[in-house]
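Bug #77: duplicate submission created two jobs. Keeping one. Sequence:
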Amino acid sequence: MKKIVLFLAFILTTIAFSQAPEKMSYQAIVRDADDNLLSNKTVGLQISILQNTATGKTVYLETHTPTTNINGLITIEIGTGTALSGNFSEIDWSSQNHFIKTETDPLGGTAYSISGTSQLLSVPYALYAKTAGNQKNYKIGDFAHGGIVFWVDETKQHGLVCATEDQSTATKWFAGTFGKTYARGNGLFAGKSNTTLIISTQVFLGDDDTTYAARICNELGVVANNVLYGDWYLPSVFELKLISQNLATINSAAINNGGSALINSFYWSSTEASNNNAKIVNVSNAQESSVFKSSQNPVRAIRAF
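Kept job's structure:
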């Protein structure tokens, strides 16, 4: 039997419905190895929507069994086939790139012998606008992304969360050897780089087997809604003061979601003050102080989303 090849032509259209159509039109021409049209034949077709790259995660998978017309043309609507995984209406077209992979069985079955992948360089506007408009807006006190939201940016879609409970009620800032770590950052997200600097310095000093504030945060893993969040860090002074500004709301949300309130006490920040000292913040009143790194203070980890 002659080898059959598939020539693809994407046609992405939207139909004037009162709501965004949950489908995209797709056409392809099937020819044999001699460039003859494969007319009036039923073929098996599998469609995959891939995220980010041509070999990325499959966010949607469906099958069709269209019949070519006299000109070898097949026409389908992606999103209306037999869904094998994912939900076409839940694809977030507004984030990352998307690719479409087609696999074809010229005999009409599922022994797919022809495949091709192309990037979707445009997406029907109605689909894009629908998913872009569905972005969740967050507010302080929401339980999301593994913790309690305590700061959001101007888009209301990104911000910072703190863990629902303390990671320690009393631990040291360092592993045991005084010295400069250069973890002097302060401000939004500064705690993340500070945490990396603190840990790398303790490893260099040979103290990495000891428990201390930054390490406890770095090794935290929180499962929420079947997602494991593992990118926690020790907050900067500024980030702890943001928690202090809405302490009552954060504490209430933490308790309501199985956690515990922050205690009216000084918490370790990741901001170093000197070779021997690091900064602490009293979350009940935002008071800032500097104490020996060997002091014992509680820890509450945070992460960005």
